[in-house]
Structures are given as structure tokens and as C-alpha cells.
Amino acid sequence: MRLWRKAGPPEPAAAYPAAAGARYGSPKERHDQRLRGDAQETARHRLMITSALLVMAFVAIALRMSYVSVLREGGEPTQRVAARGGTIQSERADIVDRNGVVFATSLPVQSAFVNPHLLLDTQDAARKIVSALPELKYDEIKDKLDSDKSFLWIKRGLSPREHNLVNRLGIPGLEFQAEERRIYPQGFTGSHVVGFASIDNGGLGGIERYFDRQLQSGETVQLSIDLRLQRMVEDELTHAVQKFSAIGAQAIVMDVTNGEILAMASLPSYDANKAKTITNEALFNRATLGVYEQGSTFKIFNSAMALDTNRITMASVYDASAPIKIDRFTIHDDHPQGRALTVPEIFKFSSNIGSAKMALDVGPEAQRAFFDKIGFLKPVTTQLTELAGPLYPRSWMKINAMTIAYGHGISVTPLHLAIGAAAMVNGGILYQPSFLKRTAASDPGKRVIQAKTSLMMRQLLRLNVIEGTGKNADVKNYDVGGKTGTAEKASRGGYREKALISSFIGMFPMSDPKFVVLVSLDEPKGTKETGGYATGGMVSAPSVKAIIENIVSLYGILPGDWAAGQAPLEISSAPAPANAPALLPVSARGQHKALPARSGTQMAAPLGGRPLEVD
Asked: Which end of the chain offers a freer environment for a tag, N or C, measured as fewer CB atoms within 10 Å?
């Protein structure tokens, strides 16, 4: 029988190789283990790179969020700013009148916006919003709230009451952004001069647009306009439009000694606080955009042109006994005298025949050069962007010279007419009109006629008010001069009968002119009081008279204040705020019997004006 020995633990000498084999394994096992180690190391490197990229991305996002929420101007509001309502500093500066009364300013307001993704119930939210802001439409708000957008304006420029009502709704996702809103305390008054700004405070018209950069940078703009006089002019113009059933009107009051515009009105008008009033018709500034034939007011320039040649004198005589026939046209007088007329008589009786013959003596080329010299063949240069250019014949022929002599065949704006007339009476100096206050150095002007010619024109203009067609504009003891103008409106192929532009341009005092006042009515209708006539002398001259009476009352001008030895007439004014633009320094002239002006901090309309209403 064979006996087997039971196996026991290996010998120590044999144990080490066995353990070594168990530790390192076979060559194949060692190769696999090495591959697994390399894969783990690669994964670790990739994880580190990915982590670094994520950190960089988060840093970039954080920087962008900081820029958007803290540094960026405009744009969509952030949740952080909106949640607390936010505060902003007003940036767009004020527009003030010559006495510092505010025409336009900016006030802090809150604007409501919503993130539809945060709303719990869009139907309930829309219902609540419309209950607080009833001018909004439920369907429109509901459609907005159901959109996929993350930001939507509900209403910008909330009034304090509206802000309180919306805030009390407690709708999640409905927040507020602090902004500023442009406010026009004078409402309709001066709107065509001041203009208006967009909801984002960018200038869109008038001074707001022309000086947009200065206003955005915080520079107050002080106008030459006197708000008190502006209100008076607009009230009188409104009265005339209603009385004579006109479709529109315009008026200009200008300082003839420096070109400052003291008042300018155009009807219909608008209130920049109420968006619904800003229509195309209301935006049209008839004083600067209305290009019309100015009728017999052009006899001012025809007479000055003729007298300035030194060949035609006040004693010159022209035969006006019969109409002039040229080609298929006939020139006749509305008030025929049937005889020869002197130059003063031609002006007093507003003779078309005599004016045409005077123009022929000067000649077409010289006439064209004269109108070019006084700026009637190009747009006016001033601080508004709403300016139209004149219309005149390309070929200035004999027939053109004859009709232009009495204001037909050439069309200019009322502003052209005002600055041209001012040069005819102020000693012969043409000033470009300014809507900002001026100093003597602002615009030295340009001589366009001799001083002696200007003196003769003042005599003719005064004669016309005393004995001619301008009697309805006379103000006792104030030496008013002026000229009527009535022209049919042009249409295709001719003129519209009884569709008139009826004007009167007045100046005073004629012994030392200071003011030009122009009033024009568009398509006025005659009344029983005017005998059915709707001419400039009947419908516009009375308004010029009323405005002159307002001027002498406003500035405390007494008869004889312009006599020799007296100080020059000056117009009430006050220094501009310290941050006024330097491009046109504020005048330091003294006042002359002027009524006290309102404080620059007061925004309410003067003379018991209308209350401010804002949409």
C-alpha cells in the first residue's frame, strides 16, 4: 500500500516567486494594467482643462453681467435695478425762454416691464394690469404676456399715481425701471420752436432736434423767445383763425436790430405732452416750411430796390392809367387810379402797374441779384431744421420781373419775408434770424441797401398805414408802418380762386424801428364786418395792431420813448443758467421799462395760462 503526503504551505523559498507572480501577474496582465493607468491620467488632464474652461466662462459671464447691470447706458433694465425701482440722474438739459422760464425739462419717472416667463397666470395678470392702466387694451396685453420673450415693456413714463397702482398689483415678474421723461410745461405754447423729443429723449423736432447734442450733454439752451409775448401772439392768432374761419395761420415777431425771434406761432399746433396731438398737419410749421407767393408785401422790396439805384426817386412818376398786356397776361390794379402815379402813390395805392414798370426800369438781372442779396433765393439759415427753400423761375425774364415786383411768380416762407422787411427799415442791415439770445458780436449783419434808402422805406411804410391799405394796423402815437399782401394759392395749372394767403407785415416805431410783426391767415373768409373781403388789410392788419398793443404794454413802452436822446429800446431778458451753451453768449443789455420776468425756476404758464396735461 502506497501512502501520499498531504500538501502543506509552500516552502519559504518558493513563496516569494509565487507572491511576485501574484503581484505583477503575467506580461499580458501588466500591459493591461499600464493602459488603464494611462487612461486615468488622460481623464484627469481632460477634467482639469474642462474645469478651467468652465471657470473662464463663468468669469466672462460675471463680467458681462456686471457691465450690463452697472456700466451700460440704456437698454433693458436688470432685475436688480428694477426690483428696487432704481434712481437715475437727469441728463437732458432744459430749454428756457429769454427770462429763464422753462419750456422743456426732464423729470424722473418709472417704466413698467414684465418677464412673461415668471408669470403664474397671464390671464389674471393682464386683467390686473388693464384695471390699473385702463388706456391699455386687454387683448393686446394678454398677447404680450403669452409670448416667449423674456422682456416686454408694459408702459413707459408712468405718472406717480400709475406707478403706485401698478406696484400695488403685486404681480411676480412685473418690475419697474427708473428713466426720465421729457415734459413741456407750456403745452401748446411755442411748440413749433421748442419741438419735441422721443420717449428715449432724442430730439425729433425744433430746438430739441437742432441742439440735441448740447442738450444730451447737459447744456441748457436759452431762447430769444419771450414766453409772455409768445402766449399773447398765439392767443391773438387763434382768435383771428376762429373769427375768419381760416384753415391755418402763422405769426412772427422779430427784433429788427439783431435778428432775434421774440415769438413765432403756427396753427394748427400740438402739445408735445400728448402724443395724439402730434399729427403731420400740426407738425407743419407755416412760418418756416410754408412756401407761398407773398403778394403785395413784395412791393416793399421792389420799392427799396428801385430807390437804392439812385436813378429812381420819390418824385419819379409812372403811368398807371391802363392795364399792361404782355403775351397772354394782363397786369391790372385792384384799386385803379386811372392816372400817372409817383413812387409814394404807387406804394400807398398798391399799384401793380406802377410796380411792374419800376421793376422794368431796374431790369430783370439786377432784380434777380437784389433778391439773391437779401437771401430770397436760398433757405434761411437759423437754429431749426424745419426750413424750406424758395421757389423762383430758372430763367428770369421780363415777364417774371414784372410779376415778381408785386409778389407773384416767386414763393418764399414768411420767415424770409420778416427778415427781408427788417433789413429794409433798420438802416439796411440784413441779419440772419436767431432763436437764441444774441450779443452785438453774435451777428454783425450784412448791408444790403443804403441807409438813406432805408429811411425812405420807413416813410413809405408809415404813409401806407396812415393813408393806404394798412389803416387797420395803426396804433395811435406809436408810428406804425406796414404793408398788406393778398395772394391766391397756386394749384396745378393756375390759381385757386378765393383760396387766399392774406398777410400784413407791420413795423414800429418807424422813426427808430425795433419790432417787425407779421401775421398771415390761410384761406380766411370775409365777414359782415369786413364787407365780405378777406384781404390782408381786413383780416390780418387788425391782429398786427393787437400784437403791437400787447408789446407796448408788456415792455412798458411809452410814446416818445424812442425820441432823440433816449436810451435805445431794449427787450426784457434775464441771464441764462450757468451751464448755458457758449456758442451764442447771453446778452448783457439793460432793460428799458420792461415788465418783470418770472423766475427761472417757475414752469407754470404765465398770464394765468392753461394747466399742464400729460398723457
From this structure: N
C-alpha 256/C-alpha 424 separation (Å) is 10
Yes or no: say if 412 and 252 are a contact pair by the CB < 8 Å rule. Answer: no
Residues in contact with 71: Cβ distance below 8 Å, sequence separation at least 6, in sequence order: none
Please, is 78 exposed, middle or buried when counting C-beta atoms within 10 Å of its C-beta (0-12, 13-18, 19+)? Answer: middle
Q: Over the stretch 220-276, which tens digit does the pLDDT of each residue have? A: 999 999 999 999 999 999 999 999 999 999 999 999 999 999 999 999 999 999 989
Q: Which residues pair with 429 in a beta bridge?
A: 447
The DSSP 8-state label assigned to residue 77 in this structure reads P
**382 Cβ contact list (under 8 Å, min separation 6):** 261, 415, 432, 433, 434, 435
Instruction: For residue 72, give the DSSP letter.
Output: -
Sheet holding 261-267, edge to edge: 261-267, 248-255, 515-522, 494-508, 481-491
Dihedral pair phi/psi, residue 339, rounded to 5°: -160, 175
What is the signed CA dihedral for 257, 259, 261, 265, rounded to 10 degrees?
110
Q: SS3 sequence, 204-238?
A: EEHHHHHCHHHHHCCCCEEECCCHHHHHHHHHHHH
C-alpha cell at 112: 413698467
> pLDDT by residue (tens digit) across 570-587?
786 777 655 544 333 323
Instruction: State the pTM of this model.
Output: 0.80
- In Å, the largest CA–CA distance within the chain is 179
Closest by CA position to 355, among listed 405, 424, 398, 298: 405
Cell of 522: 390761410
Cα–Cα distances in Å, from 507 out to 121, 305, 436, 497?
69, 19, 21, 30
Pairing type for strands 221-222 and 95-96 reads parallel
Helix (H, G, I), strand (E, B) or coil at 458: helix
Distances (CA, A) of 554 to 54, 284, 431, 558: 74, 29, 25, 11
Instruction: Give me the catalytic one of 191, 296, 303, 442.
Output: 296
Q: How far apart (Å, rounded) are the C-alpha atoms in residues 430 and 405? A: 20
Instruction: Decide if 255 contacts 291 (C-beta within 8 A).
Output: no
How far is it, in rounded angstroms, from Cα 514 to Cα 534? 29
Ordered by where they begin, the domains of the chain are 285-554 (3.40.710.10)
172 is written with which cell numbers? 411676480
What DSSP assignment string belongs to 114-171?
E-GGG-S-HHHHHHHHHHHSTTS-HHHHHHHHTSS-S-EEEEEEE-HHHHHHHHTT--
Respond yes or no: is residue 503 known to be catalytic. no
Name the more confident of 381 and 602.
381
